[in-house]
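Q: Got a minute? One more chain.
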Amino acid sequence: MQQIMKWASIALVVATLGACASSSPDVIQRGDAQRMAQVQDGVILSVRNVVVDGNQSGVGAAVGGVVGAIGGYGGSGVQREAQVLGVLAGVAGAAAGNALERLATKEDAVEILVQLKGGDRRAIVQAKGGEQLAAGDAVIIVTTGGKVRVTKAPK
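A: Always. Here it is, folded:
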């Protein structure tokens, strides 16, 4: 029963961290709704696939450490040995939780090189969205609250 609880807790952490991992250009943050945004016209020069590295906020390590310590302690055997096993399992759980958080928040993205109408160039990295962007596409760059996204220009 204790092993089931341990794995259920780890699965819950991974699912929770995975849900927080979106920076898709198709998802607008609540704080950015109903705000004026700056829009610039441009043309895509190139698009290349990149990976945005995952977060290591410490949440995964903290939860993994607690779950590991509880699972490792177990309460059986000699008291001192059980405590040592609990500490070792906590350290291992923290390392595993940190790795799971980083993996769950890693994201496939694109780096887009855009030439603006005035001749300036901009490079923008954004998560892959529903739109397929390619060299030669007319696009708009939307800037809201310091965040930037690229989308095809309306026809």
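A: Strands lie at 38-52, 107-116, 121-127, 138-144, 147-152.
Q: Perfect, thanks.
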